[in-house]
Amino acid sequence: MPRIAIVDDSRLVRALTAGALRAQGHETVEIDPISLFAVLKVLREAPVDLLLADLLMPDCPGESLVRACREDAALRDLPILVVSAHRDDLILQRMQHMGISGFLLKPVDAPTLAAKVVEALEG
Fold first, then answer.
1. pLDDT tens across 59-94, in order?
2. CA–CA distance, 80 with 101 (Å, rounded to integer)
3. How many other CB atoms sit within 10 Å of the CB of residue 73?
4. How far is CA 58 from CA 32, 33, 34, 86, 112, in A?
5. CA 55, CA 19: separation in Å to the nearest integer?
6. Structural domain boundaries enclosing 79
7. Per the structure, how many domains does the chain have?
8. Domain at 51, CATH number
9. Start-to-end C-alpha separation, the chain
10. What is the pLDDT of residue 70?
11. 6: Cβ–Cβ under 8 A, 6 or more apart, which residues?
12. 103: helix, strand or coil
């Protein structure tokens, strides 16, 4: 069963996303993004198969998180889906160059989430 980390500054969004993923048979880890260091620590200590990361978080910006994962030997190959309520094509281009597995625009419905997760896990 794939293990998926959800990093979002909204506790409600984390819980709703985790519920939708568990309904699809995935194991989830909800990470409160209190800092970039804290998120990376959890990801290193409790490895996951996929990371769902919000783009706009005040204490742990999604772009910084993706960059840090790509620079970390233990997390370099981790598939990452970026989720955001705002679409910024310049940021999205930079993130694609960093090797994200996909982008989801909030609000994300369960079928779209399921399809993107399968796509990212299959690589």
1. 999 999 999 999 999 999 999 999 998 888 888 898
2. 5
3. 6
4. 12, 9, 9, 15, 26
5. 20
6. 3-122
7. 1
8. 3.40.50.2300
9. 16
10. 96
11. 14, 17, 18, 21, 28, 29, 30, 31, 52
12. strand
Which sign, positive or negative, has the C-alpha torsion 107, 80, 11, 23?
A: positive
Whether the model pTM is above 0.70: yes
17, 63 contact by CB (below 8 A) = no
Q: Where are the beta strands (DSSP E) in 8-105?
A: 27-31, 50-54, 80-84, 102-105
Locate 107 and state its tokens.
């609000």
> Residue written as tokens 């597995």?
101
Tally the residues of the chain.
123
